[in-house]
Amino acid sequence: MVLVIAVAWKLYQLIKAPHDRPLRAVTLCLVCAGMAFPFGQAAGRRVVDSAAGPGTALLLQNVLLLGAVYWLMCFYLHSASDQHQGRVRARWEAVPLVVAVAVISIAAVATPRSVEDRMYETADMRVTPVAVFYVVAGLYLAYALASALPWTWRYARMSTRQLATGLWLAAAGMAGMVAADVIRLVLVVFRWRGNPVPPVLTFSAGLLLAIAIPLFVIGITYPGLVTRIAALRIWRNHRRVYWRLHPLWTALHEVYPEDALHRVPVGLWSDRLSLRGVHRRYYRRVIECRDGLVRISPYVAQLGVHDDRTGTSSPALLAEHLRTALRTYAAGRPTPSTAVPMAMPHTDDLDADVQQLVVLADALRQE
């Protein structure tokens, strides 16, 4: 599930920034990893192998995994300061990838059809094509991950806390995958030479790999996930404040309809459903409320309410005088000459200003 969410989010980001090479590389890395997952499941293997022959699912899974670690290397290459050199390096790094894919494909084809069990844990490694398949795939995986690991450490030391946490998790996952690959390579050689291998070693390598892969996926998705969670919290707060300001906005809008900001987005429904639409309506309502209070403040001041940031006016009293002032304005009384501070915050901060408006709106609602 984490991998599916990560792929969907990166694809969404890539659609918005299709020319971002590092983003494209990490997206392709996750896509390859996500596509490889079904071929590693028993049901997926049965369907593919029954349709295309024994070992096809295993081959596709490993090709996609090799592609995933290649794109992981490309992410760091494209993130380098010298972008041209990074592109050249990425092209050269494709050469060992193509060689590895070609060798494991030949090994898969050369494996006798009578060898139906080709899974790492139970396959007969004395069959040379099977051993070659796992040795070459493991060597490339270890090479690519080991090449990317120092870059991950370097960026983790240089990054802010949130990004560094994700990078350290990814580095731990990559280190675990390298260690598991090395152990599996040694065990393949032992099994190919006909030496018995304790099942506990095979199980331990598999367990290490099973832990390292999710850890790596969580690591590379952690910064974006935390950012989106924070954005959702802001969205929820803005939506709640938008509706809490409704009584104040309604009262002011009835007497000052010309203060409404009438800019309408191109796609009304998409704007209502999007996160940005909530933020736009929130800031528009705040501005309209503040503009209305500035215009009505002279009438409120005539009633003896003056807010000079001392906080002496209670919200209930201010709300009562605000309603009186609005009725006075609606009756067509002459406009006093000078505006005065009203419902002002104690600090020059937008959140503090909004909080004062919310307190006033709540007081209006309670009347």
Task: Outline the structure in words.
This protein is mainly alpha-helical and 367 residues long. It is 77% helix and 0% strand. The protein is built from 13 helices and no strands. Helix 9 packs across helix 11. The longest helix is centred in the middle third of the chain and has 46 residues. About 1% of the residues have low confidence.
Draw up the topology in text.
Blueprint: H1 2-16, H2 21-39, H3 42-52, H4 56-79, H5 83-110, H6 128-158, H7 161-192, H8 199-244, H9 246-255, H10 268-273, H11 275-302, H12 315-330, H13 350-366
Helix pairs in contact: 1-2, 2-4, 4-5, 4-6, 5-6, 6-7, 7-8, 8-11, 9-11, 9-13, 11-12, 12-13
Would you kindly provide a brief summary of this structure?
This protein has helices at 2-16, 21-39, 42-52, 56-79, 83-110, 128-158, 161-192, 199-244, 246-255, 268-273, 275-302, 315-330, 350-366. By secondary structure, the chain is mostly helical.
Kindly list the characteristics that best describe this protein:
13 helices; 367 residues; mainly alpha
Approximate helicity band: over 70%
Pattern of helices and strands? HHHHHHHHHHHHH
Spans of 5+ residues with little confidence (pLDDT < 50)? 308-312
What is the typical, i.e. mean, pLDDT? 83
For the biggest sheet, the summary is:
none
